[in-house]
């Protein structure tokens, strides 16, 4: 669709009057615009850092394209700039910027994705004493979920208890090695051992960017797997 053709479309919507939950965007007509080209599709998914727009002319768009998104929802007209990070079978996956997500919810936690990544514990700072223990033999851990603000993990050594730990130094294996410092904020008993939740401390911007890219990649992969499974189930009904 050319820019002039898009301009001739007549939408009967008013300016935004209230904040809307992300769910109100689903099935909203959505215009995707890049340099000299505009196409209209349907927003079909909005969770975490990504949205999906089903759009007939998806092949015209390329990964990494900067685009202007205009969503015509019952809650109002939402316009924001973003980037295409994936495309597949008639749909574009587009980053949902944090400032845009805050328009749809009063309070939002960082998107957390389920993973099965390895890591290792190198040092522990103990609660109330500030005594730091560097481990001669590092302890393996399994990261079960991750976000840009923290991780959830289980230690591979069931006998090592972090219940009185204040902070830990770990190296995450996310396809690349990433050392981080994190504060223990909760512990839960598992069938074998414990599950810990930890929040990053003094995260450098470069490391935060690497984690954000990893989380986004995992969100896209997880969504495509779920979508393929849903389509497979429908095919066998």
Derived from helix and strand composition plus strand pairing, the structural class reads: alpha+beta
Mean pLDDT: 83
Strand numbers in spatial order across the main sheet: 1-2-3-6-5-4
CATH architecture of the largest domain: Beta Barrel
| Name of the top-level CATH class of the largest domain | Mainly Beta
Instruction: State the major sheet.
Output: 6 strands, antiparallel, barrel
The helix/strand order is HEEEEEEHEEEEEEH
Please count the helical segments: 3
| Cα Rg | 22 Å
Describe it for me?
- The protein is of the alpha+beta class and 237 residues long.
- The protein has 2 domains: 99 residues, Thrombin, subunit H (Beta Barrel); 97 residues, predicted glycosyltransferase like domains (Thrombin, subunit H, Beta Barrel).
- Strand 7 and strand 8 form a beta hairpin.
